[in-house]
Design brief:
The protein is an alpha/beta fold. Helices cover about 50% and strands about 5% of the residues. The protein contains 17 helices and 7 strands.
């Protein structure tokens, strides 16, 4: 307000008073405004502090949430990784469970199932395989005549789903041919029974004859040889020479030794059981150490015959090989038995079997045993044979068709349809081989038969294997069978260039069956040397079986002749060349 100009004092005073009043009012108003503004500032300060606290709290919350989010991401990543690991573990456990299930089924099959690997194909499937392999224009009558057993109908069992096993009650047995004749070479004891009492007025009307077998078990004879001595005029003493025996000055004859050894290695009866039987039936007891010493003496004297057998076997052009486990005890220390290996070598052309015991299964064993061999060696694809002869151009390794077939036979439990497809071809091939054996074909005839009939089925199987490669789960039985067949297939080509070669080494596997029974009855060899002794006797007795010779008669004769047998005459004591000095009587 612009003050007005006055000209008197009173007006000026009034004006001054008015201004003072206005000043006072303004001062009061300013004071009030100041208080209001102070309250507003205080409230704003309080709100600002609260907002700052809220802001800090929000920041802390956001930081915590961010950390929690990062932890969640980490947790999610960790959970995803755990899930992946669990899925991988589940897959491996599933595969392991499948493998163990297959192994369990295989073990049950071994323990309780059929031992035979026989496969009976469907007639229609066999005829289809023949037609597809040999062609529609092929003379089916000729091949059907050869493999008639392979195409024989299984009475529609496979078509109707009925098991090939039939009840004994439903079988139609052929008429019995009657009682077998009793051999006439046996010692005969005649007993005559006559009516007791008075027979006056009776007329003889012949007799009723009953013939039966009798046995005198455990008969031992105590023999005494008395050699009379004479003194001549010149003072010299003359006496017949004492017949030499394997155990010089011993109490055992050569035939009793042959009996002990044939009982153990042919009929699988350990010495301690023989001791018990002798003591129970005859009252004679031989000490275990004495019998063991007798075997050791015979082993040392027979070693030169074994050396000749081994040398003769290596001159063959074709050998089959197989091996099986045999436990033995270490010479040093006391502990449980350790696995050793009995190696078996079969020379079909010489009809000889060689058993060699060795603690290991490495490649140096067959390499040393067959160091002078040159020819075809048929094995079961053990890596030791491959390593032993990989640098030996003189030895040609060949695989075994039975081992290849065995894998597909096992695979029937998982995929019967596919396995049966290839097993039909195997069946036909084996029937062709059986036909050649039944007809006694020469090697050239058998070779021609294979080239004409078997080769097309081999080619058909080769194509089937190519189709099935990499199509199955790696650890499945069918995949293993296909891979094994692919790895061994090229080693079968020699079948179509050499008719002397067999398709498998089943004959060698049959020869190691006695070792299985030896393991069951004797449990283990006493030590490594005990395994070597067993190998020597098995080489001789199993070669005897191969040549149709009675092992007891052979051992008894060899024990009689070995003492003065020269090196040049020793070859006549091999089982394949042996002729008995005294011909054995046979049943008429």
């Amino acid at each position: 307000m612009k003050p007005e100009i006055t000209y008197n004092l009173s007006e000026a005073l009034e004006q001054v008073n008015a201004l003072q009043l206005q000043k006072a009012d303004l001062s009061n108003a300013l004071t009030q405004e100041r208080h209001v503004f102070s309250r507003i500032i205080q409230e704003l300060t309080t709100e600002n502090t609260t907002l700052k606290e809220d802001k800090d709290q929000l920041k802390r919350w956001l930081s915590n949430e961010q950390e929690r989010g990062i932890d969640k991401d980490r947790m999610i990543a960790s959970l995803e990784q755990t899930i992946a690991e669990l899925q991988s573990t589940l897959a491996s456990k599933t595969d392991e469970a499948l493998r163990k299930d297959w192994q369990l089924k295989e073990l049950q099959e071994i323990l309780f199932g059929q031992r035979s690997e026989k496969f009976i194909p469907d007639q229609a499937a066999t005829q289809t395989a023949i037609q597809q392999t040999l062609g529609k224009e092929f003379d089916k009558a000729e091949v059907e005549a050869i493999i008639e057993q392979a195409i024989a109908s299984s009475v529609t069992n496979t078509q109707t789903g009925i098991s090939s096993r039939s009840s004994r009650k439903k079988k139609h047995h052929k008429a019995h041919k009657g009682r077998r004749p009793i051999p006439t070479h046996l010692e005969t004891e005649t007993i005559v029974y006559d009516l007791p009492g008075d027979k006056t007025g009776m007329k003889p009307m012949g007799k009723k004859v009953s013939v039966y077998y009798e046995i005198i078990p455990g008969k031992l004879i105590r023999k005494e040889e008395h050699h009379l001595q004479y003194k001549s005029v010149d003072g010299k003493i003359h006496c017949t020479p004492v017949q030499p025996r394997m155990i010089e000055r011993g109490i055992v004859s050569n035939r009793l030794l042959a009996h002990l050894h044939s009982e153990r290695f042919v009929y699988y009866m350990p010495y301690y059981r023989q001791q018990q039987r002798f003591e129970r039936l005859t009252g004679v007891c031989f000490a275990a150490s004495t019998i063991d010493h007798w075997e050791e003496v015979c082993y040392k004297k027979l070693k030169r015959l074994l050396k000749l057998l081994k040398k003769t076997l290596q001159t063959a052009s074709y050998i089959k090989a197989e091996e099986t486990s045999l436990k033995y005890l270490h010479d040093e220390g006391v502990g449980k038995a350790t696995n050793g290996w009995m190696w078996v070598f079969h020379a079909p052309e010489h009809k000889l079997l060689l058993f060699e015991f060795h603690p290991g299964r490495a490649h140096d064993v067959p390499k040393e045993i067959l160091k002078d061999f040159a020819g075809t060696l048929q094995t079961d694809a053990l890596s030791s044979y491959t390593a032993a002869f990989k640098d030996n151009s003189k030895v040609t390794l060949m695989s075994c068709l039975a081992h290849i077939r065995r894998g597909f036979k096992k695979a029937q439990r998982q995929n019967k349809e596919l396995a049966d497809q290839v097993l039909v071809y195997f069946n036909i091939i084996y029937r062709i081989e059986a036909y050649a054996k039944r007809k006694h074909f020469t090697p050239d005839q058998r070779l021609a038969l294979r080239q004409k009939y078997s080769k097309p089925f081999f080619d058909k199987m080769r194509g089937w294997l190519d189709e099935q490669t990499d199509k199955h789960v790696p650890d499945s039985l069918l995949a293993k069978a296909v891979n094994y067949a692919n790895n061994q297939w090229d080693k079968l080509n020699i079948l179509f260039t050499n008719g002397r070669i067999d398709v498998d080494n089943n004959s060698t596997e049959n020869a190691i069956r006695p070792i299985t029974l030896f393991r069951k009855n004797s449990l283990f060899a006493s030590n490594e040397h005990g395994g070597e002794r067993a190998a020597l006797f098995y080489s001789l007795v199993e070669s005897c079986k191969l040549n149709g010779i009675d092992p007891f008669e052979y051992l008894a004769d060899v024990y009689d002749r070995l003492h003065d047998c020269t090196a040049s005459e020793l070859i006549h004591l091999l089982p394949s060349n042996w002729k008995p000095t005294k011909p054995r009587k046979t049943a008429s």
